């Protein structure tokens, strides 16, 4: 019998116990995978967004609109390549489904966001159709929108000139993301700012954000300071930060979700530690005479230690891998089920932390029983002392 | 039968200290499940309590039609005057309508312990009637802002969760400095706000109108009267809602999300705990196989054996559940956090571990204990006496 075979044989001498312990481990890692991916969304934010762009908003809050007349001033700052602007429309689809709808300048959006991919002809159509709109792939798929359709979208903020909040836009393009990460973000609608500005009742010549494409990303710090200094002490003071910081700030608004998730994970693993630890301690306790026999046969103290540790490792590894795999599957299902709106991806990073946890777990539950097995004195153990 | 059950159960429970390590697995496992369940739902309950405490039944809030929240709403001065003078609005001590035109803007404050990311905070510009309409609101430190000055009073929740809003501090909003002169407490969602004089706020933020009008209602039919009149007025497109109804309506999404999270997490953890409980109880039955067989041999029935194992499992589960609820209570009750509310600003609230939650937690732990004990109890009752006696 090989050493590996021996470890497995030992594991399955008490089938019920091993299987039940395994199931507990699987459940714990299933939860770990899911929660850790939630954690990842809140902690790391959108990692794939580099510092290539800056976002300028009103210093008091991004909900306070700032004048569009700032645009030429910002664009004249050395180091700025191009400036786009986005205004929150407060879009509502059908009964009460909120939509991310922004009023933008089509060609500026195109130049500042090379990540949004759409045939040139559609960009042109967007620029030339006053009532035009473009939608992200995810949204278009979710609601079955086709190019050429007129899409009714309500605004819960801006009435039209006649007081009605029911707007309608012509869908002239559907954009994709430049890579997998950006594809997951294709859940917004862009409408023509020029048309919006004219047709709505009370917002004129204003926007919520300027998105600034930098000529040289190393200048980010300097450019943002220059812009903010330019508007200091005016009624429209600005706050300029990298797009990444802006996104992290936005996510953090939701609150202390990260903390809550960490508490749950702590509770789950503390419990698991006890369950597996108890199983291991029990199985070593039962086998004390056997371990003594092994030692009598000439297995070294070290080998006996490894036998016990390998058993704990096998439990944690197998349970961990199965649990994480189920979590990956679940995550993908949730992502599909919500039309990509809630991207719960058990990705490489989550798997890395999972594997690290498996190793830690093995040591935490296996080390004490293993050391006990190593320390056994043959005579005492055989005599049952 | 009953005396047999009592005898065996007594024996079982008394021997628990000898096998405390494996019994601990059930207790701690269930403590974990119940603590997580209770804490998560205590969060939803706290949010609920804060928002539903906010509205009074004898007030109504008027927003621009189809706006849903104050942030999205806007009313010009003429409309506000019309609304204030409408029928159904209660008269104040001075004989004038008890109504407050209020303006919402949003400022950013940095969370305690954070460095640069600001969180959205509601700044509410109010007139003098705002205080009369919300008698629950008390100044607990400093004084009220003075009319016509750039002064702010801050809610207790804001000072607890965010930096830079203490008395004497200056906040910079739209190129002007605002002095913090007082702290107020209302025990509801207003605790998460900064209040200022409406006129001053309007001029600073160059706004002509208001976001909403809060009115006192005249008698039980006040709301109906007001709604009827404002709906039929061709000069106005507004929605009128009872204040309490307006705030309670804002908890639906949060409840749904937290409820979903709690459901998924509790379900998976509970499954894990059932497996752990099964393990423990199987082990408990195995170590006492001889003892149980002896009892059977001297005439104890299978039924009492089954029941007694179940009771042991349930007792351990109950202790675990109670421990979990206690942990959740000690760690999280009144624990203050904030999250994004419907106005896109932070709502500060505290976890509330309610008796109903504790009770539900205990029921969950008993259910887990029941399923964890059932199969092992069955095995114990069916154990053939002779083999068991010979074993070990």
Automatic annotation (TrEMBL), chain A:
Pfam family, one: MacB_PCD
Name under which the protein is recorded: ABC transporter permease
Domain ABC3 transporter permease C-terminal: 265-377
A GO cellular-component term linked to this record: plasma membrane
Keywords recorded for this protein, A-Z: Cell membrane, Membrane, Transmembrane, Transmembrane helix
Transmembrane annotation, as ranges: 260-281, 302-329, 349-368
InterPro entries according to UniProt: ABC-4/HrtB_transporter, ABC3_permease_C, MacB_PCD
Topology term for the membrane: Multi-pass membrane protein
From TrEMBL, chain B:
Main subcellular localisation: membrane
Keyword entries, A-Z: Cell membrane, Membrane, Transmembrane, Transmembrane helix
Gene Ontology MF term list: transmembrane transporter activity
Gene Ontology, cellular component aspect: plasma membrane
Domain of life: Bacteria
Start and end residues of each ABC3 transporter permease C-terminal domain: 264-384
Name of the protein: ABC transporter permease
Stretches that traverse the bilayer: 20-47, 258-285, 305-332, 353-375
Pfam families: FtsX, MacB_PCD
Domain MacB-like periplasmic core: 24-231
Annotated compartments: Cell membrane
InterPro entries, per the entry: ABC3_permease_C, MacB_PCD, Macrolide_Exporter_MacB
Keyword rRNA processing part of the UniProt annotation: no
Keyword Transmembrane helix applies: yes
Membrane topology, as annotated: Multi-pass membrane protein
